[in-house]
Specification:
- There is one protein chain.
- This protein has helices at residues 38-41, 50-60, 73-85, 97-113, 135-139, 144-147, 165-171, 195-208, 230-233, 278-291, 294-315, 340-351, 373-394, and strands at residues 17-21, 24-27, 32-35, 90-94, 122-126, 157-160, 176-181, 184-185, 191-192, 211-215, 239-242, 253-257, 322-328, 331-336, 353-354, 356-358, 362-365.
- The chain is of the alpha/beta class.
- It folds into two domains: 17-49 and 294-394, Aspartate Aminotransferase, domain 1 (Alpha-Beta Complex), CATH 3.90.1150.10; 63-291, Aspartate Aminotransferase, domain 2 (3-Layer(aba) Sandwich).
- The strands form four sheets. It has a seven-stranded mixed beta sheet, sandwiched between helices.
- Strand 1 and strand 2 form a beta hairpin.
- Helix 2 (50-60) runs antiparallel to helix 10 (278-291) and helix 12 packs across helix 13.
- 48% of the residues are buried.
Length: 395
């Protein structure tokens, strides 16, 4: 059998979108789907936001790429804006979440090794995490399904149970450089870390001079009702990876760090051909124009609370299907009592509702942050019809 032109690493479904309108995707045959997947938490402004489209069009007509050999007015402007809005003092721009996490790993190691502590290279990571698909980021995960076929893994990672503070403390040793953790696990099933765990990691990092590195690739950029999810916990990291929503659909990521944490990242220590290109910077600025204000964040929180309340009521009608709702803002997970993937497929193929399956038998609900009442009502209409027909078919 001959291989397909697109390398067959994805089990692609029959939905073939060719156009987007606000919170809907339109297939090549004209079928409309309500998009509560958002490209896996990427299209936070939907598919036809005039501010984002206009910024990209204008920049594409002006200057797309020049390389990082030259000064970057566009990169400086977006970096300054992120510094002003976050804990960070400095930013490195990437093209993806995995690259942002790679930079974060290097920054954490360089913090110690720049000071001569060459033995301090190990990051403590947590079970069921997802940090990307590069060699370093699959090595940072304990998931065998991502390791198979790619051995040997890279050294320098130690796995501990998620939300196990005592386990994290016990894992600290002479090689430890820091912790790498998602405040809310996305692929792992929309599992928020406890306050005790997050504050405990911060305290351990401070006590042992370790780096607290957060992977906010999925939970960041207004998704939870805060610009970044760590704000929900009232703490700050030393280093953070962000991507997905930050470009609103244009490939963009970033590694943010404090001045102290970035002390090892000097001239020649890291780079990227495309990272920080003017086109990506224009997209990032347009996204922040839309989401980085109290009014927008309050709306995300309000919409998230309303959807959550309706979901809590809804799952009571199907006690054999659903167990609980978890998450924050518009990053919600519907934990099921049965395998979630068949239900996600059923909603997509029979009710034109796009969601995302995740670990722990969880259905991810990740709508564009610009949804209104009409889209919320349509979501519940489709979800209710889908649950009824799914249960009847299983009957």
């Amino acid at each position: 059998m001959s291989i397909t032109p697109l390398m067959p690493v994805y089990p692609r479904c029959g939905v073939r979108p060719v156009r987007g309108e606000h919170c809907h995707l339109i297939d090549e045959d004209g079928t409309r789907y309500l998009d509560f997947a958002s490209g896996i938490a990427v299209n936070l402004l939907g598919h036809s936001h005039p501010g984002l489209i206009g910024a990209i069009q204008q920049q594409a007509a002006t200057l797309m790429h020049v390389s990082n050999l030259y000064g970057s007015p566009q990169g400086e402007a977006l970096a300054q804006r992120l510094v002003d809005k976050t804990f960070a003092d400095t930013v490195f721009f990437t093209n993806s979440g995995a690259e942002a996490v790679e930079c974060a790993i290097k920054t954490a190691r360089a913090y110690h090794q720049h000071a001569g502590n060459t033995e301090r290279y190990e990051l403590i990571t947590f079970t069921n995490a997802f940090h990307g698909r590069t060699m370093a980021t699959i090595s940072a995960s304990n998931q065998d399904k991502m390791h198979k076929g790619f051995m040997p893994l890279l050294a320098g990672f130690k796995y501990v149970e998620f939300d196990d503070l005592a386990g994290a403390e016990a894992a600290i040793g002479p090689n430890t450089a820091g912790f790498l953790v998602e405040p809310i696990q996305g692929e792992g099933g929309i599992r928020p870390a406890s306050d005790e765990f997050m504050h405990g990691l911060r305290a351990l990092a401070d006590k042992h001079d370790l780096m607290l590195v957060l992977d906010e690739v999925q939970c960041g950029v207004a998704r939870t009702g805060k610009l970044y999810a760590h704000e929900l916990y009232g703490l700050e990291p030393d280093i953070m990876a962000t991507a997905k929503g930050i470009g609103g659909g244009f490939p963009l990521g970033a590694c943010l760090a404090t001045e102290k944490a970035a002390r090892g990242m000097g001239l020649g220590t890291h780079g990227s051909t495309y990272g920080g290109n003017p086109l990506a910077m224009a997209a990032g600025m347009a996204v922040l124009d839309a989401v980085a204000n109290d009014a927008f964040l309050a709306e995300v929180t309000d919409k998230g609370e309303r959807i959550r309340a309706r979901l809590e009521q809804f799952i009571g009608n199907y006690p054999d299907l659903f167990e609980l709702v978890r998450g924050h803002g518009l990053m919600l997970g519907l934990k099921m009592k049965v395998e979630s993937r068949p239900f996600y497929v059923h909603l997509r193929d029979n009710h034109q509702l796009l969601t995302v399956a995740a670990g722990d038998n969880t259905l991810r609900i990740l709508p564009p942050l610009v949804i209104g009442d009409a889209e919320i009502d349509e979501f519940f209409d489709k979800l209710s019809a889908g649950a009824a027909s799914f249960e009847a078919a299983a009957g």
